[in-house]
Amino acid sequence: MSIVSASQRREGSQRREGQIRSCDHPDCSGQGLYPAPRGRDALHSYYWFCLDHVREYNRAWNFYAGMSQEEVEEHVREDIVGWRPTWPMGVRETRFPGTYQAETHDPFGFFGAARKGGEPAAASRFGWLPSSPEGRALAVFDLEPPVTLAKLKTRYKELVKRHHPDANGGDKASEEKLKRINVAYRVLKAAFCA
Hints:
Layout: H1 6-16, E1 34-39, E2 42-49, H2 51-60, H3 69-80, H4 133-141, H5 149-163, H6 172-193
Antiparallel strand pairs: 1-2
């Protein structure tokens, strides 16, 4: 198997067609082997240049020439998503473009129960999800969001009194439960202080 360069492929395709292109640059008699777009609005229509002139053309090429700053920014934003329509995560677009369903489409339950107005029910004002460390810590405390720092401290004191080894005759299971409670409390307190 032989390796063929891009210029050899172009040259071969031109010979198969029975034509050899000349360079589109005025006063040049070289072969036009290298395509260059004719303009921003004609990216699939080409000038054909020799190597020296295509390099010159490329140095001077500016896709954004003649566009305002706002137009450039809009083009870059659209380019990021490939000029496809986008909508908020968890919300399906209806048959009518630009309108959204009133309820969240969450077939796997990743976002919690849907609320009115298409907003997913947030786990708390901190954005805790059941699978997050904060969500697991809330499960240890048997609390559901929203949780205040005062409510957390009250629940912590209740659980420490109930599961302290001294109150349970040195029971190992209570000791392990207390360790989990202390770890969960540190996680939640850090989330409140952050």
